[in-house]
Amino acid sequence: MQDRVPVGQNDMHGYTVAYEREEIQFPVYVVGLIGVVLATLGIVHGISVLFALALITLGYAYYNFPLLETGRPRIGASQYGIFAEGLGIIAWRSIKQLDLVSLNLRGAEVNELHIILEEPLNRALLADWRKRPYYRFLMRLPWAMPAPNHIRIPLEVFDRPADEIMRNFTRMMGFFRR
Fold first, then answer.
1. What gap in Å lies between CA 91 and CA 169, rounded to an integer?
2. Where would you tag: which of 94, 103, 149, 165 has the fewest CB atoms within 10 A of its CB?
3. In a 3-state reduction of DSSP, which class is residue 73?
4. Where would I find the beta strands (DSSP E) of the chain?
5. What pTM, to 2 d.p., does this model score?
């Protein structure tokens, strides 16, 4: 076992999950290309509406740029707890409950991992990775916090099935909380 808690996101070992490599990259490239074409047309023809549409589409591509960085761990679990990119390491002792929630959104089933914390997030984090470089500030994160002490992680964009992720997180939590 390691003696120290990992400080950075690139220092994580254990069960890690990255963004899926196949289907989610294509729309980001397409929207980026459409944005470049719209910007070019807007500048060449002097049409400000096209340039405004270009900014919207390029903003969407920028927000989703992390989906192109496949192979890099985005979420996972180790001996210390569950980690998520842009959040940090949540200590096993601070996790009250883990749930796999299936939602039906517009006819498609979406799975989310819900992490309920026993204490405030600042005390639950062993390592705090919420400070990001300024150029990544508006980019996608693999988690959301809709309420205090409640973290949601949509699992559909990852390279592992939702039930496998949940099974491994639950197994590791049972083992390391002893």
1. 12
2. 103
3. coil
4. 15-17, 75-77, 81-84, 88-91, 95-105, 108-117, 125-128, 144-147, 150-154
5. 0.82
Q: In what order do the strands lie in the sheet with 75-77?
A: 15-17, 75-77, 81-84, 88-91, 125-128
Q: Is the pLDDT of residue 131 over 80?
A: yes
Distance CA 36, CA 139 (A): 19
**Other Cβ atoms within 10 Å of 3 Cβ, number:** 4
Which pLDDT belongs to residue 173?
94
CA 155, 157, 160, 161 torsion: positive or negative?
positive
User: What secondary structure does DSSP assign to 10-49, as a single string?
Assistant: GG--SEEE-B-SSTTHHHHHHHHHHHHHHHHHHHHHT-HH
Q: What is the pLDDT of residues 2-21, one digit of tens each?
A: 455 555 655 566 888 988 76
The structure tokens 């390592």 sit at: 127
